[in-house]
Amino acid sequence: MYRRRVKKPPVPVFPETLEEMGYIINERSQIIDSSGKQYTFDLKAKNRDYQEAHSRALADVTVRSAVARMEKELGLVEAKVPFEIEKDDTTTPHANILMSPDVKQCKRLLVLVPGTKETVGSWSRRILTKFSVEEGSMFYTAKRARAEGYGIVMLNPNAQYWVNDQATIHTPITRAFEIIPSLRTPEEHADYVLRHLIQSCASKEIYFIAHKYGAEILIQAIHAQFDFFRDRVAGIALVEGTYSIHCFPDLAFRSWWSKNAAGYIPSEEDEIKNKVEYRDATGCNCVVVNTKEYDYTIMEVMPDIFRFFNTRKNRDNSFNSYKDAIRPLNEDDPTTAMVAIHVDQNGEDGGSWDESTTATK
């Protein structure tokens, strides 16, 4: 018995700009159509594959629009990685990162590491298309950072594939593609940029913000280059970070990490909002954020992260200068919160802190 082979529909091709796709960004930083209706993903659409392809294309062109705005309004520039590729070379496989022109000389340097399936300049495609282009992209973060005097570097760890003479974060549907050298994995990308760019910067006051799997990418790169970063890093913010400190048994590294890193995690139904608790898996204090929506945490905590970083400005970041110091409680610095360490019924460490705790660490 023969069965008719079902033909797959051709891969849809979408326009290259928001306007050509029938959308604009309004004054509230929302994506709207010509009738003023905000874009929404049609969950009941019969052709789900088309809807998903349309959503990806819309997010892609919106991120490109946000990057163009960051270049125009904030003065950020693209740089090709691997770094030895010439500026006018468009055929050799490469990816782009985004940075400010002063990264080599700035006093304070902020490095942004997105999570899985996000491209350079984007924190969350979900926030970008559903809520706010400025906050779903890295525009708001970069704008505030530049206003406060930070140099800035945006990593692009998911751009591993080279298809049709351009880098892409999407898994190729054709065999005609290449893996970009030195960027074969997100971890390799981060290690390469930190080793060849960040280490060449003059700043001794380096800050990091990592989102979701970006935390795993970051901790691996810093651990591999710990001899350099132990005396240069001022603060690390990990938003919904997915990693485990148990992969790094070095006690000196763990101690350093606990004094410099702060996690930000969405709340659960039975948790007190904005409390600080120690998470054994993360190896650092974590702030429970007043949101139950994953992805939206990055939007909620950005002001808190900058307040945390402000407490670290002008600090002597040599690890020996503070590793044994008793630090007074600072409500803007989650790493200073005194937490009670306890062992639960499963034998796992945990901890929590409430407003009545005012002891120094």
TrEMBL record:
UniProt-recorded name of the protein: Arb2 domain-containing protein
Arb2 domain location: 14-270
InterPro entries xrefs: Arb2, Arb2_dom
GO terms (BP aspect): regulatory ncRNA-mediated heterochromatin formation
GO molecular function, one term: siRNA binding
Cellular component GO terms, alphabetical: nucleus
Pfam families: Arb2
Superkingdom classification of source: Eukaryota
